[in-house]
Amino acid sequence: MSSPLPIVNAPLVCWSCHERTIGTHFCSSCGKIQQVLEHSDYFAMFDLSRKLWIEMGALEQKFLQLSWKLHPDNFTNATPEEREISLRRSSELNDAYRTLRDPVARVEYLLAIEGARVEGKNKQQAPPELLEEVFELNESLDELREAKTSGGDTAALKHRLESAEKNFQGKLTEVDGELQVVAKEWDAAVDAKADDAKRKGVMAKLNDLLNRRSYIRNLVVNVQKELL
Amino acid sequence: MGKIVGIDLGTTNSLVAYMDTATGAPKCIPGPSGSALCPSVVSLDADGSVIVGEPARRRLLTQPGRTIYSVKRLMGRGPADVQSELKLFPFRIDPSSNNVIRVRLGDKIFTPPEISSFILRELRNWAEAYFNEPVDRAVITVPAYFNDAQRQATKDAGRIAGLEVLRLVNEPTAAALAYGLHEKQRGMVAVYDLGGGTFDISVLKLISTGEGDIFQVLSTNGDTHLGGDDIDHLLQAFVHEQILQHDQIDFSPHGELAQELRKQLIELKHRLSETDKVTLRFPLPNGKLFEHNFTRGALEALIRPVVDRTMAPVRQALADAQLSPKQIEEVVLVGGATRTPVIRRTVQEYFDRKLHTELNPDEVVALGAAVQANILDRGVQNMLLLDVTPLSLGIETYGGAVARIIPRNSTIPASAQELYTTGVDNQTGIDIHVLQGERELAKDCRSLARFTLRIPPVPAGLPRVEVKFLIDANGILQVGAKDVRTGEEHSIEVQPSYGLNDADIERMLEESIEYAEQDFAERQLIEARTESESILTATAKALANPKAVELAGGERASVQQGVAALQEAVKGSDYKLIRKKIDELNHATEHLAEILMNTAVQTALQGKKVAEV
Fold first, then answer.
1. Residue A78 distance to chain B (closest CA, Å)
2. What is the pLDDT of residue A123?
């Protein structure tokens, strides 16, 4: 599933001059912009290994540097084929930067390309340790909706929901903290060239955390909607 | 290829600009009147010809039924969207409108992109006359908060005007480009752009790199139906109400009277930016004079709602960029409405920064468009603009909810892939509904397009079709689909929810030729031939003049040679050659003209006293 790092690409042939090329973005022989690879990944695009800690300053530098070269502005007077490739390449670059810049999206992406992302079977199902609090929260939400339609007093309910929201926001921060810890575990496993079993274990942990996070995030959004 | 111009297609005024390579600065191109502002007003004359700009604006008073202004408000919208505007705008929406609005001018019906194309054509003519060469490529600006349909409608207008639209640039971003070139600013910049009909706020990061300057838009927000027009409406509504109460006269927005009042109120609004008190005196049809004293304070109280409405988008844009007002280093004001003192004061107080107003707020967007045009033409190679999509892109899922696939403020071009499969055996199609907006439910978002993925009849779950949604550098959506197992590309017929299809545009392009003036080269040829005729006649006459004997033999021969060469050139259709021969003949006849001129002067002076001269 996971490939040895760093990624080594198979020999490539330029679409335009048909020479072998070692350039990732531009042909090393003729200089033409190169197509999106079938199996490219966002990490490789920035010359990064598949690790979760990323130096943001360096990422931005690389993003800007590649933008200079790949942006469609550079290809107004080029052939339709090159214009099309530039459009695809620069959109891929922007997608990659958007994903890697966001720590949660980054984990999600890593798991996806490693084939280890399994979304919660039932998104409505609360993680066991949260069951009791979620039950209470849903009750309060129902009461508030009822009070709103019947014109009852909502102040006390709103207050209760506000503190519940704060509570779940806290849990969200907790999950983010846990994600960071496990992300470090992942990076260490990569550095140690750990075996597949070890990697799969770490990825399963990351996957659970992501599912828990999206569950709590949905709760917070729902509460915020009712409190508006 | 010819020059690429930058066009600001505004609600109230439109402009065309180009990069003056001699000075390295962008410059607006003046029209025949000498002004660079072309009022965005179009009028259809009784003889079927189209009048654009200042002459059309004058016809708002005399021919309101054949004349239209602020058509930008209708771009990319459906009839249901504009109901609230009809109370205030004299738009005559035709009942034949479906997913595209159709507007009546006199006895003819036009779509908003067609009307906009008349304005673009006029500006194109200004540019061609200025350069004396054809212009067929342009960068056109749009409000940053324009959605896909509004952008597409603008691009369509360009096509109907016979222009290749190389790029749509967001207006506040264009302004930032013009300022960036002008001031060499760095750091975080906010652009507050309140135009005639639209409001935008954009937050940019200006970065210097080894290769040059990058203008990276971090976030954008706005309201595509908020602008100086709304201030005018509040004023109009106020005065209409006063007149109704005192004189029981009801103004319909369609009448000439309402247009005359609107004109006076706009002038009054402008004057209240300079002075504290202005009196409106408006003669009523009942012979009475309506008088009202306006103070700046009263105007400010009246327009407060408009000012307040701009601040929510400002706060949202800063939140999206994860910045506080204090972190913004420079604030740029764009758009005519930002001349209003209360708006300046409000923005100044919010950011607590000096406001940049050095560049003319009417011209700055067109100037920025010219800079971008030059970047695309590879003139300027040390500037790069990275813009964002203003609205999230989503697809409808079960239960009418929206799954967001490209979040707002994503740098463009941006894309997202979705994998689709079938739910029942032998299912031959999957319906996809694409939306734009921030709301949770499909019915609250803007419908962009619907299409059906065609699938061969196979068992459920077997097909794997990847649909790629791509927002290009213009902020316009492209959709492609691919069978994951076979790698085969699917073709997709996307039916835009609001907009013209290719066949519509082709037809309009053909029809527009009827309204348009002749092709540039043809026009040039006719002018050159007409001029040849008059110079040949004048030369023949001059040579026949008795005084012409003073001309030396060699000179006479060269004049005759010039005449022959011009006569030969006129037979062909090369206007440049004819011009060259005209110039040569003019040159050859200089001495002859001088001789005759002296004679004429002497004749004229004969018999007159010195004092009379």
1. 11
2. 56
Helix (H/G/I), strand (E/B), else coil: A195: coil
pLDDT, average across residues B243-253: 78
B502 is catalytic: no
Q: Where are the beta strands (DSSP E) in B91-248?
A: 103-105, 108-110, 137-142, 164-170, 187-194, 199-208, 213-223
Cα distances (angstroms) measured from residue B222 to each of B97, B152, B203, B226, B227: 27, 18, 12, 9, 11
List of chain A residues whose C-beta atoms are within 8 Å of the C-beta of residue B377: 76-77
Is B171 known to be catalytic?
yes
Q: Which of 19-78 (A) contact B at CB < 8 A?
A: 64-65, 67-68, 71-73, 76-77
CB contact under 8 A, B378 and A76: yes
CA distance B371 to B5: 9
User: How far is residue B146 CA from its own chain's centroid?
Assistant: 13
Determine the Cα–Cα distance for residues A184 and B173; give it in Å rounded to an integer: 40
The ipTM estimated for the assembled molecules is 0.82
Task: Give the C-alpha separation, B303 to B234, whole Å.
Answer: 7
Q: Does B207 touch chain A if contact means CB atoms closer than 8 Å?
A: yes
Catalytic residue among B122, B148, B171, B223: B171
**Residue A4, pLDDT score:** 35
Task: Test A94 with B472 for CB contact under 8 angstroms.
Answer: no
How big is the A-B interface in CB pairs under 8 Å? Answer: 60
For the beta carbon of residue A23, count every other beta carbon within 10 angstroms. 15
Mean per-residue pLDDT, B192-213: 91
Q: Is B1 helix (H, G, I), strand (E, B) or coil?
A: coil
Query: Are residues A71 and B415, on separate chains, in Cβ contact within 8 Å?
Result: no
Q: Please give, rounded to a whole number of angstroms, the shortest distance from the CA of B101 to a CA of chain A.
A: 32
A222 at interface of B, judged by CB pairs closer than 8 A: no
pLDDT digits (tens, 9 = 90+) for B422-444: 888 888 888 889 999 888 888 88
CA distance linking residue B430 with residue B372, whole number of Å: 40
Q: Tell if the CB–CB gap between A76 and B166 is shorter than 8 Å.
A: yes
Q: How far are the Cα atoms of A15, A34, A50, A61, A85 from residue A25, in angstroms, in the given order?
A: 12, 5, 19, 16, 11
Contact (CB<8Å) A76/B376: yes
Whether residue B373 contacts residue B6, with contact meaning beta carbons closer than 8 Å, is answered with yes
When pLDDT is cut at 50, 70 and 90, the band that residue A200 belongs to is very high
The three-class DSSP label of residue B459 is: coil
Containing B289, the helix (H) or strand (E) segment is strand B289-295
pLDDT at position B523: 65
Q: What is the DSSP string of B373-414?
A: HHHHTTS--SEEEE-B-SS-EEEE-GGGBEEEEE-TT-BSSE
pTM: predicted TM-score of the whole model, two decimal places: 0.81
Is the pLDDT at B109 greater than 70? The verdict is yes
